[in-house]
Amino acid sequence: MSTIESVEVLLTNPGRNFVTVRITTSDGATGLGDATLNGRELAVASYLRDHVAPILIGHDPAAIEGTWQYLYRGAYWRRGPVTMASIAAVDMALWDIKGKVAGLPVYQLLGGAVRRGLLTYGHASGAEIPQIFDSIREHLDEGYRAVRVQTAVPGLGQVYGVSAAGASGSGRYDYEPARPGTRPTEEQWDTRAYMRHLPTVFEAVRGEFGPELPLLHDGHHRMTPNQAGQLGRALEPYDLFWLEDCTPAENQQSLRRVRDLTSQPLAIGEIFNSIWDYQTLITEQLIDYVRSAVTHTGGITHLKKIMDFASLYQIKSGFHGPTDISPVGQAAALHLGLAIHNFGIQEYMRHSDPTLEVFHTSYTFADGLLHPGDVPGLGVEYDDQAGDAHGYSPAYLPVNRLTDGTMHDW
Ligand code: GCO
Ligand code: MG
């Protein structure tokens, strides 16, 4: 029987930090998994190196569900972002190995393709309306068929999700929220100013681009349920594809209030890590899209269970795919998305060239659709030489304060 021979934890920073697991079997097969937890990377690396790697040596690499349960139940301490990202990385690596051994892409092991490709959205943003229009046009020119729209707010400084450089080229994703340094930067927030301004932006965007284009928006956990309901209602004339993270949703039942106030489709879950975080949201149909990443939710094995549960309630996927999900995590999301019936949409921001020199991908983006490719396994290879050239360096997500200094959600 083939056994797990080594579990390596690879840290690299080709512009931003990534934590990758590489499992090697006694037969020489290797698999990759993504464990990147933005701003808390070293905690996951230690969990994996110190507590997971030593206990996996000698295990059967083919036993994916059994290994998942061993790491989840065996730890006694369940759930949480560090534990679940660590389990996710091992799970992805074992699916990668299973695919390579079988000579099949992972989506085939999950039941095969349900569709030709995955509808994808990108991130358009700008300080003023003309820049937002340019940014949307740039996405449409690249083939995107859906766009998320984020805007600056008059009177506030740098706002999460908004490119300072406007639409053009390399500046487009310069708002990447984790900034290099040993402390988080600080941003300022005013929910009322934001709620007044946002509907005017969507009115302008709909006026310019017409009724067809799917438009998304991320509220980044900043509203109370009542505010979220009000904003959702104000945006209804502009027919959003979804309003994301309108509240932190730690109190799942509070989404009942949002639902009572607005029929706006809702997407939640990028900071969740377990099926239990969704229980009320799914059974009471309080959301429309599951925002989890494979990377932060226990891997393909666990997110597949969440999606099967969600399918009973007509809730679809909208997997998290910003650049802090590594190309390995992104590939895992694409294999899963291609194979489940209740796929909704996939988030995709192309990784930087230095990142793609470390992670050699085989997924494709054409005519607005992503496809994981047909290489056996997940289809991503790790270049050690390129990875070793960039060591870990501290970077933190910003913190958000109200104008009087009170800490706020961001
Ligand atoms: C999104 C997200 C991200 C997160 C980031 C935090 O919808 O893509 O909100 O941009 O802020 O992943 O690490
Ligand atoms: Mg988000």
Bound molecules: D-gluconic acid, magnesium ion
Strand element count: 20
Q: How can the largest sheet be summarized?
A: 8 strands, parallel, barrel
Query: Fraction of residues in helices?
Result: 25-40%
What oligomeric state is this?
single chain
Structural class: alpha/beta
| Helix segment tally | 13
Mean pLDDT: 96
User: What strand order characterises the main sheet?
Assistant: 4-5-8-9-10-11-12-13
Radius of gyration: 21 Å
Shape field: globular
Low-confidence stretches: 166-170
Distance between the termini: 49 Å
Structural key phrases:
410 residues, binds D-gluconic acid, globular, alpha/beta, 19% strand, three-stranded antiparallel beta sheet
Description:
The chain has helices at residues 41-56, 64-74, 81-102, 106-109, 129-141, 191-209, 225-235, 255-261, 279-283, 299-311, 327-339, 353-358, 384-388; strands at 4-12, 18-25, 30-34, 118-126, 147-151, 179-180, 186-189, 215-218, 242-244, 266-268, 289-290, 316-319, 345-347, 359-360, 364-366, 369-371, 381-382, 395-396, 399-402, 407-408. The chain is an alpha/beta fold and 410 residues long. 48% of the residues are buried. Mean pLDDT is 96; it is low at 166-170. Strand 10 (266-268), helix 9 and strand 11 (289-290) form a beta-alpha-beta unit. The protein has an eight-stranded parallel beta barrel with strand order 4-5-8-9-10-11-12-13, surrounded by four helices. A three-stranded antiparallel sheet has the order 1-2-3. The radius of gyration is 21 Å and the shape is globular. Helix 3 packs across helix 10 (299-311). It has 13 helices and 20 strands. Bound molecules: D-gluconic acid (GCO) and magnesium ion. The site of magnesium ion has 4 residues, from loops. D-gluconic acid (GCO) binds at residues 38, 177, 218, 220, 270, 322, 324, 347, 397.
